[in-house]
């Protein structure tokens, strides 16, 4: 399938595997649009929390997702800002509270259906690096390059903990470790679009690797796939 703007690179994997950092690097190296699908679920979760809505109610959450405008806008430096109903919430969606809520919100079939349609539309033209937890199996099963990133549980928890520390969010490593464990279990066992590796995906264990090393490996695979 020849796409107007290039390949679709789908990067999946559990929380803390390095998907966001690596996907951003790959997009920058190839001049592609970076699409953080998880940010879209986080935006819905943030709106629900702000409105005091029941995030466990699948019907209410689906209706909220349908009525919510979420835009991912690429900046001149290649970074992407997230806009929720016109408000820049790029930083606001990264708190532990929103992370926890988004894991629950993203498990609702109605919410996934609404956001999946928007994500599929983004992929159609190509020239995108999409990352999330069901990209290669649900959103872009025909992606030309499929990558499944992994890392040890301890390594992933450490990365999340350091990320939160850098943002000035005070939380213990043990708390983050427990949260990552619970998140893994939810993502793998949810009825709708559970986290799993596509049969034709290339698995990369990022434990002990720098984001740059992982990104270079993916760019090499993409160039081979494109015949460059």
Structure description:
By secondary structure, this protein is α/β, with parallel strands linked by helices. The protein has one domain (8-223): 3-Layer(aba) Sandwich (Rossmann fold). Helix content is 50%, strand content 16%. The protein has 9 helices and 8 strands. The chain has helices spanning 19-30, 37-51, 58-66, 96-105, 109-124, 135-139, 153-166, 173-189, 211-226, and strands at residues 8-12, 33-36, 70-74, 80-84, 87-88, 128-132, 145-150, 202-205. The strands form 2 sheets. The chain has a 5-stranded parallel sheet, with helices on both faces. A hairpin with a 2-residue loop joins strand 4 and strand 5 (87-88). Helix 2 (37-51) crosses helix 4 and helix 7 packs across helix 8 (173-189). The two termini are 16 Å apart.
Number of strands: 8
Oligomer: single chain
Report the structural category: alpha/beta
Query: Which percent range fits the helix content?
Result: 40-55%
H and E string: EHEHHEEEHHEHEHHEH
Radius of gyration: 17 Å
- Biggest beta sheet summary: 5 strands, parallel
* H/I helix tally: 9
Shape designation: globular
| Largest sheet strand order | 2-6-1-7-8
The CATH superfamily is identified as: P-loop containing nucleotide triphosphate hydrolases
Total count of domains:
1
């Amino acid at each position: 399938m020849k796409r107007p703007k290039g390949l679709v690179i789908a990067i999946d994997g559990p929380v803390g595997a390095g998907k966001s950092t690596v996907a951003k690097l790959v997009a920058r190296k190839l001049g592609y649009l970076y699409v953080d699908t998880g940010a879209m679920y986080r935006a819905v979760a943030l709106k629900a929390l702000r409105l005091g809505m029941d995030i466990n109610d699948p019907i209410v959450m689906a209706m909220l997702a349908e009525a919510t405008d979420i835009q991912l806008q690429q900046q001149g430096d290649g970074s992407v800002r997230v806009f929720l109903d016109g408000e820049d919430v790029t930083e606001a969606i990264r708190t532990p509270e929103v992370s926890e809520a988004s894991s629950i919100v993203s498990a609702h079939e109605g919410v996934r259906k609404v956001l999946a349609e928007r994500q599929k539309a983004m992929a159609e033209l190509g020239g995108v690096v999409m990352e999330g937890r069901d990209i290669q199996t649900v959103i872009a099963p025909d992606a030309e390059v499929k990558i499944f990133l992994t890392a040890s549980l301890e390594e992933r928890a450490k990365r999340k903990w350091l990320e939160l520390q850098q943002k000035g969010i005070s939380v213990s490593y043990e708390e983050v470790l427990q949260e990552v464990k619970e998140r893994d279990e939810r993502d793998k066992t949810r009825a709708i679009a559970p986290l799993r590796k596509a049969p034709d995906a290339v698995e990369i264990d990022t434990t002990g690797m720098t984001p740059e090393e992982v990104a270079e490996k993916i760019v090499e695979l993409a160039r081979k796939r494109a015949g460059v």
